[in-house]
């Protein structure tokens, strides 16, 4: 879109990675100096897709952060919950308003249907953000674009954490067999006229948000077992592993370390950082510390999203919640894969700081 400021996006390397037919290119940001993190006045988050629904959900407030239920506009059709996440983000700074769509759930039926039932306007979307390459976060994207692309900006861009986001994923069964867990093919994005911005380094989006870039792993956290990943590219599909992995990794299928998973962040005026970790495989503490480092902001207002601690052993979970507590956020908002075990432990250690949500919830930050 003509008025979408890409000042920071222009700080890129001279090299462009050709991706598909039709002259479509992916842009890799240069590993340059610090970003200029914008400050916003308000943020509204609508939970379009999450893993649970609760028709009895009640409004709540913690540290000025408010949650309110989102109801289906059709009393005969419920909101659809599925394993996955999609968030409709509306930050505002003065008169400047943007709309970002972070992740897309598992199926197009869920994201498209819930947007309609919640009366959310997809034509308002200025940019897309993909947190990582798991199908429960990207499975709905093509069906969403097929329905709504014509109503969105002509220069629509998706901000992906990096090349790792385009790798082929697999799930391993208890018997050891591998099953297809999906792959985002950039050629499909090209066909729908969506540009790709690789955010392997911190990146400002629309003068309202910033991404963490590749997250350093320096806490007690570890990547818990999840998917397998294949480092391979053929005919434009898959990931170009060669610029971030040694040659011997070509074609290997290995446990997924989510090398380029990133978090989406905001700096709320007079409050501090809002860090959104869609799945947090690389560690929620690591993610928040990275946001603090790249922004230069020490105060953490809110930590929210999926933390991938559902499968965590009890002793490890207790340690991670204690480390989150040391970050001293005003509010903690677990979603998706965080796990009921995490929510219960967080309530125990961080009493009065935890807000829960459900599919359809609106969360508001700032006045």
From TrEMBL:
Pfam families: Lactamase_B (PF00753). InterPro entries: DHPS-like_MBL-fold, Metallo-B-lactamas, Metallo-beta-lactamase_dom, RibonucZ/Hydroxyglut_hydro, TAT_signal. GO terms for molecular function: transferase activity. Residues 97-149 form the Metallo-beta-lactamase domain. It comes from the Bacteria. PROSITE patterns: PROKAR_LIPOPROTEIN, TAT. This is 7,8-dihydropterin-6-yl-methyl-4-(Beta-D-ribofuranosyl)aminobenzene 5'-phosphate synthase.
């Amino acid at each position: 879109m003509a008025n979408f400021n890409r000042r920071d996006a222009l700080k890129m390397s001279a090299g462009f990675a050709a991706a598909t037919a039709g002259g479509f290119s992916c842009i890799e940001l240069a590993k340059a100096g610090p970003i200029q993190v914008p400050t916003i006045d308000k943020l509204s988050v609508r939970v379009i897709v999450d893993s649970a629904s609760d028709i009895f959900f009640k409004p709540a407030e913690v540290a000025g952060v408010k949650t309110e239920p989102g109801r289906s506009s059709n009393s005969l059709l419920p909101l659809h919950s599925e394993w996955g996440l999609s968030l409709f983000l509306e930050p505002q700074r003065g008169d400047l308003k943007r709309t970002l769509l972070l992740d897309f759930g598992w199926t197009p039926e869920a994201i498209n249907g819930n947007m309609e039932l919640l009366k959310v306007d997809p034509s308002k979307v200025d940019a897309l953000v993909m947190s990582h390459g798991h199908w429960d976060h990207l499975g709905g994207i093509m069906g969403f674009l097929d329905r709504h692309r014509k109503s969105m900006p002509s220069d629509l861009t998706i901000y992906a954490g990096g090349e790792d986001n385009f790798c082929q994923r697999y799930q391993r069964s208890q018997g050891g067999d591998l099953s297809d867990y999906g792959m985002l093919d950039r050629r499909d994005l090209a066909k729908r006229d969506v540009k790709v911005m690789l955010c392997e380094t911190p990146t400002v989006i629309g003068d309202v948000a910033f991404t963490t870039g590749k997250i350093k792993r320096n806490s007690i956290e570890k990547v818990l077992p999840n998917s397998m990943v294949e480092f391979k590219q053929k005919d434009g599909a898959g990931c170009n592993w060669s610029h971030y992995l040694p040659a011997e990794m070509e074609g290997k299928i290995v446990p997924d370390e989510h090398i380029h998973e990133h978090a989406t962040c905001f700096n709320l005026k007079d409050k501090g950082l809002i860090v959104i970790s869609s799945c947090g495989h690389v560690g929620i503490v690591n993610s928040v510390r990275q946001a603090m480092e790249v922004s230069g902001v020490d105060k953490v207002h809110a930590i929210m999203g999926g933390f991938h601690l559902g499968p965590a052993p009890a002793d490890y979970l207790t340690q991670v919640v204690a480390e989150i507590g040391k970050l001293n956020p005003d509010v903690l908002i677990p979603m998706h894969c965080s796990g009921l075990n995490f929510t219960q432990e967080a309530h125990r250690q961080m009493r009065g700081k935890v807000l829960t949500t459900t599919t359809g919830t609106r969360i508001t930050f700032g006045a």
